[in-house]
Structures are given as C-alpha cells and as structure tokens.
Amino acid sequence: MSVNAISKSSERPSRETGSLVKSVSVISTGTGEGHWEHIHGSRKPALWWIFFGKRWVKLPLNVFVIEHSNGLVLFDAGQDRAVMTNPDYWPEGITGTIMRNLFRFDIGPDETLSMQLEKLGYSTADVSTAVFSHLHLDHTGSIGEILHADLIVSNEAWEHMLGLHPEREAVFRRDIELPGAKWQQIDFEPADDPSLAPFEYAYDLMGDGSMVLLPTPGHGVGSISMLVRRDSSPPLLLIGDLTYRTEFLERFQFPGTGDKKKLRASFEKVLALKKRMPDLVILASHDPGAAEALSRF
Ligand SMILES: [Zn+2]
C-alpha cells in the first residue's frame, strides 16, 4: 500500500490554532480488564502473570474525539462488541488462549463507538479521520464503524502488522485490513518547529500545527502520540498506551509488556516536552483518570 500524505493546506496558516480545534472529548467503548502486573509492571515473566495472575484492574477503552475545523478526528477507535458476541472472536490455539487470559472486556450494546459518539451529539458519518496510536485490537476493533474515514497509522506499525504472526501481539489483521478501509501510512518528517523539542521528527496532521503526531515507540513497534494545541486551553498530549497511568511516567514505572529501552527513551522525551510546556496535559488511552483530567482543562 502506498504512502500518502493526507490532504493538507499547502501553506501553513498562522500558529494561532484556537479556531482550528473547537473541542476535545473522550469516550470509552466499554470497559477492559488487565492484570495488575500488566498495568503496573512486574519482574515476573509475562506468561506467569497471564496465566496465574489473580488481580485484575478495570480500564477504560478511551477514544479521543477532536472537533477540528476540517472535520471530526478520532485518536484511536476502541474495541468493538464482537469480542462479547462472536464466539469465534479469538484465534484458535495457544494465541487465543493467551489473548483470552490477557484481556477481559465488558462492552454493552450502548457502549459501541457509534453509540458513544451519538451521546456526544456526533455520528460516525461525521468522522473524517482516525489516527491510531498503534494497532492493538482494543484500539482498532471499531474500524468497521468508520470505514468512510481516513485511517492514519505510522508506517512502522503498518509494516510490523504485515510481518509474521502479528496476532501473537494482539494485532488482528482481519479487523484492520477490512475491504474499503482507507488506510494511510505516514512517515515522520524532520520537525521544523523548535517548540516540539526534544522530538526531532513529527507529522503535522492538518498542516496547521494544531494536531502533531510524534513518534513514541516502546509499547508497540511504531507507536505514536498526538499533540493537540488549542487557543485558550492547555495543550494535550495523547499518548496511547505508552503508559496505563500518566503518573507512572515521572517515576519511570514501566508496564508489564513492551520494549523497556524504547519505553524509557519515549518517557524521557515526553517528560522533556512537558518541561518545556508546563501546562501540557498528558492523557493515556486506558487511564481511568483521563476523562476527569480532560474535563478540568
Ligand atoms: Zn496496546
């Protein structure tokens, strides 16, 4: 699949972005549960806590909804309800057994992406673009509800999905490569905006500086974050699953999965950005505090 840049204005407007981002909301496509060791990190091997862990932690499946003057943008799309209703949802064999022991979901009929958007006064037809922090099933499951939209992913995450057995890492090609899905893979470009330091590479989603994608690998290959800059409210950094709790960043508390070296480097960059933007609000996809934090700002 070719690499396409999504439509951008050819000339960058002024840095004044206030009128561009009109609102930011968060919805959750039901509830997930993960092992305590998965969320908080553990010295025990993952296979141990996957099969013997007894403490489960409830998590939201956050989808961030950004109303931009060019259209409605989602950051991640959440889990679909098929995990509750389709007995053949999980792969067969050991992979399915591990997945069933890794995640538990509770998604009611009124908690689908479509229903949650309706509660905000939007419809799925309003969604023009969805950006994916990464391609894990609980972020991509609802793609079938927004097939008309541009679906944006990092080239690295896409290439990883095309590799051997992505389902062993919770990346389900069958739910991603849907017929008609308008996937666009982006490559980061050298950042010409010094305020993004220490990030040296970025991707300006709309070409106006209001939504800037930043590489934050570690949770998965090619995982990304999105900086949302608003006029009269603090900037937001949507970090996907870089951590499951924003407060874990400062104490370098890593989750139970992922590439620790890359996680550390991404934590350091995010914290350095926060130092330069003290009012930056960092929001994670499974942080139970994200909705409350967003409502405060
Ligand atoms: Zn994930």
Domains (count): 1
The outline comes out as: globular
CATH class: Alpha Beta
The bound ligands are: zinc ion
Measured by DSSP, the beta-strand proportion falls in: 15-25%
Order of helices and strands: EHHEEHHEHEHEHHEEEEEEHHEH
Using the 3D structure, state the CATH architecture. 4-Layer Sandwich
How far apart the termini lie comes to: 39 Å
Describe the overall structure:
The protein has 297 residues and is α/β, with parallel strands linked by helices. It contains 11 helices and 13 strands. A hairpin with a 2-residue loop joins β2 and β3 (71-75). It starts with 20 loop residues before the first strand and ends with a helix. Mean pLDDT is 92; it is low at 1-18.
Q: Brief description of this entry?
A:
By secondary structure, this protein is α/β, with parallel strands linked by helices.
List the helices and strands and how they pair.
Elements (H helix, E strand, L loop, with lengths): L20 E15 H5 L5 H7 L3 E13 L2 E5 L6 H4 L7 H10 E4 L6 H7 L7 E5 L5 H4 L9 E5 H7 L11 H4 L5 E5 L2 E2 L10 E4 L6 E5 L8 E5 L7 E3 L8 H4 L9 H17 L4 E3 L6 H7 L1
Parallel strand pairs: 3-5, 5-6, 6-7, 12-13
Antiparallel strand pairs: 1-2, 1-4, 2-3, 8-9, 9-10, 10-11, 11-12
